[in-house]
Amino acid sequence: MNSSPFKHEGWLYWLAFLIALGFRLIQLGASPLTDSEATLALQALEIAQGKAPLLSPQPGYILFASILFAVINTTNFMARFIPAIVGSLLVFAPYLFRDKIKPRPALILAFLFAIDPGLVALSRQASGTMLAVTFLLFAWGMWRNQRLTLAGVFAGLALLSGPSLWAGLLVLGLTWLFLQGMESKPASSEATDQSLISNPPVSDPPITNYREASPWDQLLLSIYRPALTSLILTILFGGTLFFLSPNGLSAWLSALPEYLRGWTAPSPMSAGRVLLAFFAYEPLGIFLAILSLIRGYRTKSPRILRLSLWLGVALLLAIFYRQTNELVWVILPLLTLAALELSRAFHLFAEERVEVGVVALALMILLVYFWFGVSKIALDPVASLATTTLPLLGRNIQMPGAPYMVLVGVALIIILCVSFVAFGWSARTAWLGTTWAFVICLGFYSLGAAWGASGLRASNGVELWKSGRAPAQPDLLLASLNDASEFSLGHDQSQPVTVMGIDSPALEWILRDRSVEMVSTLDPQVAPPIVITPVMGDLGLPAAYRGQDFIWRQTPRWQEIQNPDWIRWLVFRQLPQEDETIVLWVRDDLFPDAREASQQP
Fold this sequence. Notes:
- Helices cover about 60% and strands about 10% of the residues.
- It has helices at about 10-25, 35-50, 60-70, 75-90, 100, 105-115, 115-125, 130-145, 150-160, 165-180, 190-200, 215-240, 250-255, 255-260, 270-280, 285-300, 300-320, 330-345, 355-380, 380-385, 400-425, 425-455, 475-490, 505-510, 565-570, 590-600, and strands at about 390, 395-400, 495-500, 515-520, 530-535, 545-555, 575-585.
- The strands form 2 sheets. It has a 5-stranded mixed beta sheet with strand order 4-3-5-7-6, with helices on one face.
- Helix 10 (about 165-180) crosses helix 14, helix 19 (about 355-380) packs across helix 22 and helix 19 crosses helix 25 (about 565-570).
- The longest helix is centred in the middle third of the chain and has 27 residues, at about 355-380.
- It starts with 8 loop residues before the first helix and ends with a helix.
- The model is unreliable at about 185-200 and about 200-215 (pLDDT under 50).
């Protein structure tokens, strides 16, 4: 990074990396693992313990996480550490494409990658999604920069990342096909085409021997050989953890069928909710991308046209696939368009800075007031919908509620202010002032959304990026288990636990340090010391038990959610939820008071 066209470019990339690390590592293990995260983490834990489990089609994450579990510790933080680090490294990917998108937009894109809510949320999940995105971009960038060995290594790591890679390859492949179809042939080539039709060229025979190949073919083979060799070696050694877990190769081969199965499998997300997540979490990128698209189509910029096609293809596939994590392939072109537009906004002349600053400050005040109005509606969405009857022109006209009228009024004032500035001063001043006002306000919104998507803003908040719902009261359940075990045997992890009728990998992960038996029914002749079951009246076992219920999971009531509820969710991330309750049963003789009573004469 020493050949930078402007000062301190390399250090600025490292600053973006540190910001990305902050958003991805702070309190990384505070939130409990969801069922989908725990499924992969448990497989990594079994490999670290020397077992040979059947692996999910994300061997890259599972095998690398098993190294951390074997060397360091098995915690929530370590389960999410690899995606967090790899997701932070994504900020260096724009540097590999700086010759195409120019150095300044590439640097801006690195900072946008660092704080983007969607990328932050996916980087804090124990899965292979961010591994697929980062490694694929690195492989592409290394290939473009003629670093073929590294390109093969990153391509192999991307192939081991799981089904998300195939979603990205499908997006890029369809985009390339559409671009090829949109390219028009020159008129002068029609005669050449006709001659080719009448006299088709004779194709060369396939190359079967390197020594018999022409010097040109030998050169091509020598160029591709390092990439192909490193690709094969990466899959062979990385996919088997240096032959310690050979079934990683079968898991790698099952990634494509798993992705194809997702097109027909039922999904908790709908197409509308995926689209809502896109607009709710990416307003900054959407605003700047719209400005960039308008400018690009006016100037017929080939770069903007390609990025817009990539954006459209990725968005349609994500909507039809009905998985929020597939929006990651939409974020890449979206933020690239945003960086291109934001780079232009940095070109301010000295004589216009005051005017642009005044316009930006005035619009920011109005935007903050607008958000306060939205927050007021979110406090009581139903009451805000109450209409008001006004006598106008001899008729009683139903008008929307006062809070909504305030929002309409603020929006009209913003439009009038921008129009007056454009006619009074200049269109450039209006454009720059508006751009910077929205960038600053939406930037703060993105920071808040990124913090919320990490699961730190509200413990029971509903974030649409999560692949499942995290346990609601795992700490209380674990504390009760520890107390019961310590009271009876003097150690908080000594008592074995029996889990009956609960299919929850997250529960198995929480109980990973104990002796756990998963059963579908209880043996009526055996009285285990601690049992965890769904809500039930009596265990029917030959011993007395004391039970305590805990809220295990909270699932949004998607079918009961009304439009006003989404306004409340936009501000507070709260939705009506349904509680799933489990019961912790502890045998009565494990309690000190029961033992003392039995010892009395």
